[in-house]
Amino acid sequence: MGKTTLITGGAGYIGSHTTLALINAGQQVLVLDNLCNSCRESLTRLERLTLTRVDFIEGDIRNTKLLDDIFSRYDIDAVMHFSGLKSVEESVRKPLDYYANNVVGTLNLCHAMARYEVFKLVFSSSATVYGAPRQIPIIEDLGTGKPISPYGRTKLMTEELLADLCLSDPRWSIALLRYFNPIGAHESGQIGENPNGRPNNLLPCLTQVAMGRVPELTVFGSDYPTVDGTCVRDYVHVVDLADGHLKALQALQSRNGIHAWNLGTGNGYSVLQIIRAFEDITGISIPFKFAPRRAGDIAECWSNPTKAGRDLGWYAQRDLVRMIQDTWRWQLRNPHGYHAQSDLLAPVALKQRV
Ligand code: NAD
Ligand code: UFG
């Protein structure tokens, strides 16, 4: 068997799209996931799409014995590290879970990597490390800020931990990929975002309304100093993100040390602009009501992705129309996500625009 890339969290939303990109690029992969926010079906879909068996171990990155076992059995030469908890709101209620999973989990993983002399790591970071940005569009070189949530602090702490690791040993090559707002799904409609429980992010909440499961969308805040009073974000297609991971891994073959790259489109859209674009593209009306600002939201945030363009040759290829079309295709083909059906959810009743 050739050199293998270990993909932690590879059954999840961004991890599954990246696993697909790696397999399509002819690479050998091994997915490690405890399925706490995903299911085996995403990997079965990948197998169908690629006509390849996906090596999978169900397990937790906090299990040091398991990590030892994996690194001793497989010829791993790089790790893509997606696993972690990602809900901003939940992190406020359960900070210990977030620090244990995201920070201690990464620490365990790095220990195992060092023991087995695997020094290439691509880490899923987030624009949240910039906190309230001092300048927009955001460039990497201005430095990080003060994240507003425990979730954001786990990402910043992990970045700092990884920077210290690179200082301590020049053999490490680490990519910090700072995602902006990932949305969309693979064009096949076979894999996509499948959040457990009640969604928090804008697109999953919006599609719940479009599917008729929730009567209206709540728009948090109408008095921000933005184009129309609602928050502006840089939405980026998950397939473009996957391609960014592939390019970052290639770049690590010839550079040591730690490198941060923004993965965003460089364009900002407000919540109202997203609602209108969704209505235009799908023909479905999205009733909404305004509510007070959501704690921890910043008014505006979008990237300057020039550094990723220059260093990696990566540019987001897919525009907002494509992002919404692909999100909607995934949703329509999989009204209950990866589950064939669910009696927990109300039946689907699409609201055609009148
Ligand atoms: P996701 O929840 O779909 O995927 C994470 C995967 O990790 C899941 O399959 C989950 O089961 C697994 N996992 C969690 N804890 C684990 C553990 N201890 N051991 C093994 N597996 C574990 O999330 P996603 O949207 O694909 O995000 C992937 C990464 O990108 C996360 O680190 C997240 O913080 C980061 N990120 C996501 C976004 C976003 O908006 N989706 C934005 C910025 C950064
Ligand atoms: N929003 C609504 N109604 C909803 C859901 C969201 O108005 O029902 C608004 C939010 O208030 C915000 C915007 O839509 O103004 C985007 O919110 P999301 O929750 O989709 O995304 P965030 O920008 O808050 O956070 C996301 C990820 C984080 C990541 C961050 C990086 O969830 O993990 O992007 O920019 F850190």
| The CATH superfamily title of the largest domain | NAD(P)-binding Rossmann-like Domain
> Percent of residues in helical segments?
25-40%
CATH topology of the largest domain: Rossmann fold
Describe the main β-sheet briefly. 7 strands, parallel
Main sheet: strand order: 3-2-1-4-5-6-11
Arithmetic mean pLDDT: 94
So how many helices? 11
What is the level-2 CATH architecture name of the largest domain?
3-Layer(aba) Sandwich
Q: Could you characterize the architecture of this molecule?
A:
The protein is α/β, with parallel strands linked by helices and 354 residues long. The protein folds into two domains: 210 residues, NAD(P)-binding Rossmann-like Domain (Rossmann fold); 95 residues, Alpha-Beta Complex (UDP-galactose 4-epimerase, domain 1). It has eleven helices and 13 strands. The strands form four sheets. It has a seven-stranded parallel beta sheet with strand order 3-2-1-4-5-6-11, sandwiched between helices. Strands 7-10 form a two-stranded parallel ribbon. Strands 8-13 form a two-stranded parallel ribbon. The longest helix is centred in the first third of the chain and has 21 residues. It binds nicotinamide-adenine-dinucleotide and uridine-5'-diphosphate-4-deoxy-4-fluoro-alpha-D-galactose. Nicotinamide-adenine-dinucleotide binds next to helix 1, helix 5 and strand 5. It is an enzyme of class 5 (isomerase). Its cofactor is NAD(+).
Secondary-structure blueprint:
Elements: E1 4-8, H1 13-24, E2 28-33, H2 40-50, E3 55-58, H3 64-73, E4 76-81, H4 88-93, H5 95-115, E5 120-126, H6 150-168, E6 173-179, E7 181-183, H7 202-210, E8 217-220, E9 232-233, E10 235-237, H8 238-252, E11 257-263, E12 269-270, H9 271-282, E13 288-291, H10 306-312, H11 320-333
Parallel strand pairs: 1-2, 1-4, 2-3, 4-5, 5-6, 6-11, 7-10, 8-13
Antiparallel strand pairs: 9-12
The chain binds nicotinamide-adenine-dinucleotide (NAD) and uridine-5'-diphosphate-4-deoxy-4-fluoro-alpha-D-galactose.
Residues 8-9, 11-15, 33-38, 60-62, 82-84, 86, 101, 105, 124, 126, 179, 182 line the site of nicotinamide-adenine-dinucleotide (NAD).
Pathway: Carbohydrate metabolism; galactose metabolism
Cofactor: NAD(+)
GO molecular function, one term: UDP-glucose 4-epimerase activity
